[in-house]
Amino acid sequence: MRKNFWLLMIALLTAIVLAACSGGDDGSGNAEEEDNGDDGSQITAWAWDPNFNIAALNLAKEHYDNENFEMEIIENAQDDIVQRLNTGLSSGTMKGMPNIVLIEDQRAQSFLQSYPDAFYAIGDYFNPEDFADYKLAPTSFDGEQYGLPFDTGVTGFFYRTDYLEEAGYTHDDLVNITWSEYVEIAKDVKEQTGQAMLSLDPNDLGILRVMMQTTGTWYTSEDGTIQLEGNEPLQMALENYKELMENDLVKLSSDWSQYLAAFNSGDVASVPAGNWIGPSVEAEESQAGLWRVAPTPRLDMEGAANASNQGGSSFYVLNIDGKEAAAEFLGETFGSNVEFYQDLVQEVGAIGTFKPASEGDAYQFENEFFNGQQVVYDFSQWMEEIPQVDYGMNTYGIEDILSAEIQQYLDGKSLEDVLSDAQTQAENQFK
Amino acid sequence: MKKIKRIFIYLFLSTAAIVSIFPFLWMIVSMTNKSVDVTRGKLTPGMHFIENLNNLLETTQIGIALWNSFLIAVITTVLTLLIGSLAGYGFEIYRSKGKDMIFNILILSMMIPFAAIMIPLYRLFGRISADAPFIGLDTLAAAFLPTIITAFFIFFFRQNTKMFAKELVEAGRIDGLSELGIFFRIYLPTMKTTYAAAAIIAFMNSWNNYLWPLVVLQSPENQTIPLLISNLGAGYTPDYGVIMTAIVIATLPTALVFFLMQRHFVAGMMGSVKG
Amino acid sequence: MSQANSHYTKQQSTFVQRFKKNYIGWLFIILSVLGIGLFYFYPMVQAFLLSLQSGMGSNLEYVGLDNYIRLFNDPTFITALTNTILYLLIQVPVMIVLALIFSVLLNDPTLKFRGFFRTAIFLPAVTSLVAYAVIFKYLFGSDGLVNEFLLNFNLISEPLNWLTDPFLAKITIIIAITWRWTGYNMIFYLSALQNVDKSMYEAARIDGASPVQQFFFITIPLLKPIILFTSIVSTIGTLQLFDEVMNITSGGPGNATMTISMYIYNLSFEYTPDFGYAATVSYVILILVVILSFIQFKLGGDRE
Predict the structure, then answer these.
(1) I need a labelling partner for C42 at 20 to 30 A (CA). Which of A110, A243, B20, C33 fits?
(2) Is A390 helix (H, G, I), strand (E, B) or coil?
(3) Is residue B192 part of a domain?
(4) Looking at domain A40-152+311-359, which CATH architecture does it have?
(5) pTM of the model
(6) Domain count within chain C
(7) Would you tell me which residues 22-61 of chain A have a C-beta closer than 8 angstroms to some C-beta of chain B?
């Protein structure tokens, strides 16, 4: 008994000594950091995804000719960045905040409006007109340009040539179609091949947004008014959604890995999604040559475009020491360097929203996996047609309300009631 | 009759064990598979373990993260046990109306979700940073300080002290031990199963703690294991083989602590007779 | 035991001794009181002040009790609250009873492979949440192992949508929490059983009490403080349920598995941040737990 007791005491003491030591270490580490902060030469950047955004930042660093420029790129999950930024900015303690941060376009307005003094306007460091129009509304606030538009979420209709052929469709039959035609094709595919047309996660209403944006509409209008009731594109999108669900044309997935597995294992005939899904499609090498990409279907309405967007993000500069250096760096690389964008496509596979870049050689690349299609070039052309929408502040909040109502819609509640109930709830929530 | 009952008990426990252990085994199997196979739920081992491990070591600083998590967890466990058991013992042995009231108030602190106090707490550490940077934001100390004093362990030790034979305290006093001496020389050794249970829980809580270290530790050299795993899963095309490898490595220390501590749960072990 | 003890102290205690005892008692607890005050109560007071404000991010303004009134017209909050209470009512009792049964069975010295069983049943508590979420989603997917198993034994005629059906998703969450936390609770009982006087069981056996009788008339009363502890802690844990829901169903389908904590998280980080309203929702949990703990304490008969 006694021996055990002394062992415990020794463990205790060691730990306390350790604690003290580590405290000391951290102290010194911290002081160093503060010194760096004073110089203003060390820039930090936060982004997610090592193969995509982080790689893009590293590439930009290589392309930037400035000996005095030092940048530390820190990898964080997107949700983690959102939490850290919100905690840091709301506490008013700017210590530890980065100079450059990547923010998803659909979240940008909520940050810009929630923390108006926290961001630095960078419109003077590049020409916003060089970028795809649809990127500008989400990245600016109060007439000032805050974000440097980065990757596009331009969508495509990735499909399996073998399944579609078996159902009697050629590539030309799939170009510039409407979503209701897509549903009909899906029925044929199911009948002929037994495969589902697409995979969907019922928790993610992304497909509705893709459909809606082909008409330039959103859950909210430009002045922020919630428009669910009487929103014709949304109604049409929901009707298509229900039709797909009810006819068993969808393979349900409950998370990202299952979503990927659905097309990797050949269980679905198409993937209507942002271009960034491309590498995941290509990951299954045995399916090389079996895939192609058609333009996104549009909603059956006048003025609708066969182009839409899903995801995509932009870089922002925080209003702290080093902001000028950070903005200059962004402006000279992501903001204007055509060559950089060629490397970006070739080495990282990221398609930017910088319009002059699409004429470069790298964009003409013929992708063997997609039957020699110039996929990147096609995407960059569709990108310029994406109808502009203002994502506003409450996309995710409204969607939570809507998704509960959609459950009831699938169970038989009328579409009018669904939308008007969702409208009332959303108005209560987001006054 | 008795035999049938025995068989039934074994059957019941075996089912429970299989159900419990299955995901753990699956994790280990997945560690040897390619990402695509993991998402398909492949149940047989593959040949990709070395590849996954290499990818993990190349793309992350898992060594640093393990060391940080280990340091934080050990310090947290030792201090939590010491402070928590002192208080739990104090509240029960020196019971008074005033202390009972304070105890009830302390218990309240368990009840509010951490997300609610996180931002004020962050602000507090922001202010501490100005005067004492070595325990301020972005230090390992900041990651464990708010977690070492918790009502949970005070409550736990107090409830266990209720089952502690209090005659031993009087016996200690008669033997001329100081009050603190009674605690260290009588209470602490007698309650070692309680300490073992608390150590497992405290280590595990600290090892898996996510939200607070996430906001308070910003630099990569202060990264902990849960943050590292969260990063791994964050890309557009996460590699589940690598993630599973990281998860198995991350799970081993807590499992090890459990193995080391669980021998104290053996009824009538020689220790208490011999001791 | 305690009667004998108090009798003994009464004889012994003089005024000086009582004063000394009291003063030393405060020394034992002072560090905890200060620490919890600084790291919990000070932020809690701030959070309360926050709950009287509303607005986006750092643009907060005082709105008095508006946030509390807003709660009653917030269908998402009401869904989250009813879901959470449902989890609580079903899951906590099931888990506590299971954990008690396991600990008593595993405390039997004649049982073989005890170490293995103990470790196996505890393992879910240490398994990383990420792994456990991935595998639960896989097991309970529409063509996952669970459905395959049920189909093979003809228990169902077509695959069930465990994760995408509003009712079944709740069941899946309850199974997931029970799976993860039963072993954790078992630890508390196992450790407490070691501090129980073995002679009581021997005496009972000699008197001819069956194991079931021993369980109800010796084990349960002796473990009462720990059962009370675990049920309060589990209640709090379930009311603050977040990890499982976030990682397995993200609150869906259509908020069918949404919990209060998940809603707080969404209000703070997923939607445009409204920290004031988020703080209000957390105070609701506080109030609920206070009421429930009070009931549990009363039922547990802790007061002398």
Answers:
(1) A110
(2) coil
(3) yes
(4) 3-Layer(aba) Sandwich (3.40)
(5) 0.84
(6) 2
(7) 22-24, 26-27, 29-31, 33-34, 48-52
